[in-house]
Amino acid sequence: MQPYNDVALVVPTSLPYERRSERSAAWFTGAVFAGMLDRAGLEKHDIDGLAIASFTLAPDSVVSMTEYLDISPGWLEQIPMGGASGPVAARRAARAVQAGDADIVACIGGDTASADTFTDLVRNFSRFSSDAAFPYGAGGPNTVFAMITRHYMEKYGAEREDFGRVCIAQRENALAAGTAVFNKPLSMEDYLSARPISEPLHLFDCVMPVAGAEGFLVMTVARAEALQLPYAHILAAGERHNAWSDDDVHFRGGWSLYREQMYEQAELGPGDMDFLQTYDDYPVISMIQMEDLGFCEKGGAAEFVRTRPLTWNGGGLPHNTCGGQLSAGQAGAAGGFLGTVEAIRQLTETGLSNQVAGARHGMASGYGMVNYDRCLCTSAVILGRGGE
Amino acid sequence: MTGNTIPPAARSRLWQQVNEAAAEGLFRLQVCTRCDKVQYPPQEFCSRCLCDELSWEAVSPMGKVLSWTRSRASTSEFFRDKFPLNIGLVKLDCGPVMVTYLAASCLHTGSRVQVTGKQDKSGQAVFFAAPPDKDPVADFNNIVMEEVKHERK
Known about the structure:
The complex is a heterodimer. Chain A is an alpha/beta fold. Helix content of chain A is 38%, strand content 19%. In chain A, strands 1-7-4-2-3 form a 5-stranded mixed sheet, with helices on both faces. Chain A has a 4-stranded mixed sheet with strand order 8-11-10-9, sandwiched between helices. Chain A has a two-stranded antiparallel sheet with strand order 5-6. In chain A, helix 2 links the parallel strand 2 (49-53) and strand 3. Chain B has one domain (15-132): CATH 2.40.50.840. Chain B contains 1 helix and 8 strands. Chain B is globular and about 45 Å long. Chains A and B meet through helix 4, helix 5, helix 6 and strand 5 of A and strand 4, strand 5 and strand 6 of B.
């Protein structure tokens, strides 16, 4: 796979999340777009590529957004991959910039949340789901991921406390970041005594649907330097969909099929990652990513999280340093951008209240689209601090 | 919308075949006429050999529990007085993995179960897994459609 030389990721931008909003996904998308232009010192017509991931933009699409924003791009992409969309957007936009198909691509994940949006979304999520999964209690993804979690616990000996360690560390990170919807400390006792949602999942294992948006711009390094913008490089990237489809229950994802290629391309290993941002719709999924991305052996994530601090300043593996969706909430497809945006932020900004000291390289991974009994999409990027 | 007073009712057109089998008291799934793959959920061609000639055939309803959950939260009002709701992931001996309602006596990984299709109160068929030769819906009388009683002569 060819390298992603000379491509810069800049102005990682997050809109504050809201528990409920009367505004539409188009507003959230437009607001983050305007915020990125402002921070980059660009005019909207400088943007000639637009990649969007959203569940609630429908019946509109990235096409409609060109009219709302009154821009005329020569490159458009809509990424229907939910939680995998951030790394995928970065990867595709980078290739477009490298090939000269676009000069500056705005990558945005954004969704709104009203009283009905989540219910409408899960009811019509996919045909397999409507036929053969959703009718059983209409619990949405909680039902499926409860069964994936129990299977993982029985297969590998993970305990609820292990999932709790992931959630509690992320809450500490959220408190340091100061931007999350959930801003109260979480103790192990709080975690273990929370009400059951779909056993073995309890309240703090589940993400809260919220409204919000995340975005970044992709351009050449030369352009970023001309604009005097700090940037991150893509050192490697990968995606794989519907991997391991013969597994009766989901316990590994497509990451395991391309991680070696990524580390080889980046000339780095998992031990060189100064942080890891995983897609955390449920803590078991973060632990599966730690394994499949090579941070520990398969089945070893429970032991890993028992011995390795996951907080931003704990000296272990800083993980989901802004608190992840488990603390920030899940803003639809923006949840697929959250880790990528936080990774770029850690590598381009200084003086963050949750800054990982001396971070030079990090990884963000994505996971999305529960078509029937598991999510099908996986993605990951290894990023490096620009100018190094 | 009446969606909250009955279980979710939206299904694909193919699901009618599942409904018809359930109404007849039979366990029929899609079988590929070329490679014999038993397929679930239904789709319009075989995912293994891509043949689009599939038949609906009686197959073994026997299987084992791969995993399970006790659900206590729902997006639908219908379920809110029916918690906890036992739901399982069942591996059929003939191949497919099904999400099913699960009898309370089968909340163990590896439990042997028989799967039965019956209409729920939306009028659409859903599947119930229970010990073989036990009433498959004994724990779910508040979910299944009441049967019209016919006098037998």
